[in-house]
Amino acid sequence: MTIKISKVPKTMRAAAIDHFGGPEVLTLHSLPVPVPDPDEVLIALHTAGVGGWDADMRGGWWPEGRPHFPVVLGTDGSGTIAAVGSRVRRLQVGEKAYAYSFNNPKGGFYAEYVAVPATNAAPVPESLDLKHAGAIPTTGLTALQGVDDALRIRAGDSLIIHGASGGVGTLAVQFAKARGARVLATACGADAVALLRRLGADVAIDGCGGDILAAVRDFAPGGVDAVLAFVGGKELTQCLHAVRADGKVAYPNGVEPKPRKRRGIEIIAYDGVPGVAEFKRLGRAVEKVGLKVPIAAAYKLEEARKAHARLAAGHVLGKIVLRIR
Ligand SMILES: NC(=O)c1ccc[n+]([C@@H]2O[C@H](COP(=O)([O-])OP(=O)(O)OC[C@H]3O[C@@H](n4cnc5c(N)ncnc54)[C@H](OP(=O)(O)O)[C@@H]3O)[C@@H](O)[C@H]2O)c1
After folding, report:
1. Residue ranges in the chain modelled with pLDDT below 50
2. Ligand 1 atom closest to residue 168's alpha carbon, by position in its atom list
3. So what's the architecture of 4-135+293-323 in CATH?
4. Is the C-beta atom of 235 inside 6 A of ligand 1?
5. Architecture category of domain 139-270 in CATH
6. Which of 34, 85, 118, 180 has the CA that lies 20 to 30 A from 192?
7. Is residue 252 within 8 Å of residue 168, measured between CB atoms?
């Protein structure tokens, strides 16, 4: 196996866990740098995204199989390609790339290096720097696929984006507007509502205290065409009441409690998926929109536990990231 490689050390710093627990179980480790297989790339990471699913995994939720400790968390990030496997042609050593690999077999993104399948990585869109690109692989793909694939939003559609001030929602608002939708977005608190207005929502309301149904009556008197939900619960049920007959509701798996079935409304659960075509479409959408990526806070790699404590405190407007280089 020939691997094209830039100068890569044998060991790296990584924020890893030796057992499940609270934010305090995230500690700095020295671990071997993963070696890429023929179809993989090694990325020298600049930024890693921090998501609620990382905290779930840290706390003991595991998608499949059993973890092999120490576990390096993190599903996405950005950096520079440091090595490519012998079969990789699409990405070059030295190129800036961003990537998404959920429960990555060779370790996650809270580290100086990550080895991922080349199809899970793509060149960074020109309009984004590494910090902002590293914040969006998971959230950007999930937001765009919710708008385009799950709901098939068309120009003129009326859409509620519920729970829109977080990592996925802040991007979904912008993608839905770019597809020509009329968007009513919900968030909690005046600062979050103001952010959604700045991101282009036609109407932004407080979904924690406000009357969602009253707002929808003005926005779409016959009911909305669709709902894209990033948080579950009784307010999401209110949103369902606001959907017209034959309308649609979509949510990415992970949103709890899930919306209950309702006669006359299609309910779609989906996952954000990476891939060559998926990243190309994301890249085009990022450029078309001039995507704004709200970053609520950035922490050093060795402060990963602080990042998780901040996540647990809630009211994160946009995304939390780790600064690795
Ligand atoms: N399956 C997949 O492929 C996939 C991929 C990505 C994400 N997901 C899932 O998608 C969901 C969203 O992810 P995310 O990273 O965007 O989460 P997030 O950052 O926590 O966003 C959720 C937002 O909803 C807001 N919210 C809470 N209650 C609300 C209410 N009653 N009305 C209006 N807004 C409310 C929260 O605001 P406050 O914090 O101020 O309460 C928060 O900003 C999560 O469940 C995640 O697990 C799934």
Report:
1. 1-2
2. 16
3. Alpha-Beta Complex (3.90)
4. yes
5. 3-Layer(aba) Sandwich (3.40)
6. 180
7. yes
